[in-house]
Amino acid sequence: MKKALSVLLTVLLLSAMLAPAALAGTASGSGSFTALCFNVAGLPSFGYLTGGETTSVVANQGTIGRFVEAGQYDIFATQEDFGYHDNLVSFLKSYPYQTQHHGGVPYGDGTNIFTRNMPMYNETHTVWDQLYGIADDGADQFSQKGITYCCIEVQPGIYIDFYDIHADAYGDEGSVTARRDNFRQLAEMINARTIDRPVIVTGDFNAFLFNDSSALKETLVDGAGLKDAWVEVCNGGNYDDCSAYLSEYGTGWTGKWGVWDSVERFMYKDGGGVTLECTAFEYIWVKTDAGKDVSDHAAASAAFSYSGTMTTPDDASFEKSGSGSTFMEVFRRIVTFFKALFMGLSNIDKVIAYFKK
Questions:
Q1: Is 178 contained in some domain?
Q2: Could you tell me if residue 18 is inside a domain?
Q3: How buried is residue 51: exposed, middle or buried, by Cβ count under 10 Å (0-12/13-18/19+)?
Q4: Considering the entire predicted model, what is its pTM?
Q5: Which of 115, 178, 290, 326 would staple 97 via disulfide (CB 3.0–4.6 Å)?
Q6: What is the CATH number of the domain that holds 31?
Q7: What does DSSP say about strands 199-204 and 158-166: parallel, antiparallel, or unpaired?
Q8: CA 207 to chain centre
Q9: Using CA atoms, how far apart are residues 309 and 289, in angstroms rounded to an integer?
Q10: Three-state SS sequence of 148-196
């Protein structure tokens, strides 16, 4: 009797240990989707209120929202989506899946992700370890710039790890050092994943692959195994030579801005038994009816195809995005406010000099 009971307990124990693996499944499939990355320039526009500017940030968010809705991009990723978020999303009628918005400056990071028919899970917002600039050199320290991550289910059982970033801005020594560390932090996050899946990284990198000091290629292409969509589609996959573009547009950054090898990018790689390929890429300048740019950035548009078989964990490992705790969000904003206030008072001379410009 004791022996039979011992055998039964052993069987039950082994069944419990194997249960998670048994719940895991495999999914095979192929398909394609489109994606748009856009720094929507949603920073406060005091100049418009005083007549110093001829464009309205509020109106521009409407133009951007209508553009995205009309384009029916499957995935839409933003940067600088701060205080005018509600104006933007009011036009995104076809985008039921959205990451949690964390507010304007100084509370939010401005990075948000929207999808039309692809559920998103396991959303996280990570602030960069290093940011540089108080009231100058991009004033990056007055926002929560960093990485918004989520796992996107492009079709049932096929998942992609998706990262939307906004790197430290400007070309001064402190900003370049911070940006190099941003890419280091991102690469470590990608390489530390415990589940292998395809990866897409998009956002405002504030860096170029060619003729740049931010170690973008060294850190993310060589260090994290990512491909760059512009290089693959527009430069024949050549990461070492861009002479055709240099001869046509020159060596200055203004010749690149929104034209070629610009700061808005898509980077990607295969994973988990699924291959991922960028099939189209272009920069798009979105304009008002009067012909004015709605942002100081171009949008980056990309198309992807995928195929393969993926082993996926059970549903218990996924948590739907966009449903964060209200209490924790209020608490985070209170802490962020006092941090920003302390930083501003500690650097009051820089703040005063900024507003005197």
A1: yes
A2: no
A3: exposed
A4: 0.84
A5: 115
A6: 3.60.10.10
A7: parallel
A8: 14
A9: 46
A10: EEEEEEEECCEEEEEEEEECCCCCCHHHHHHHHHHHHHHHHHHHCCCCC
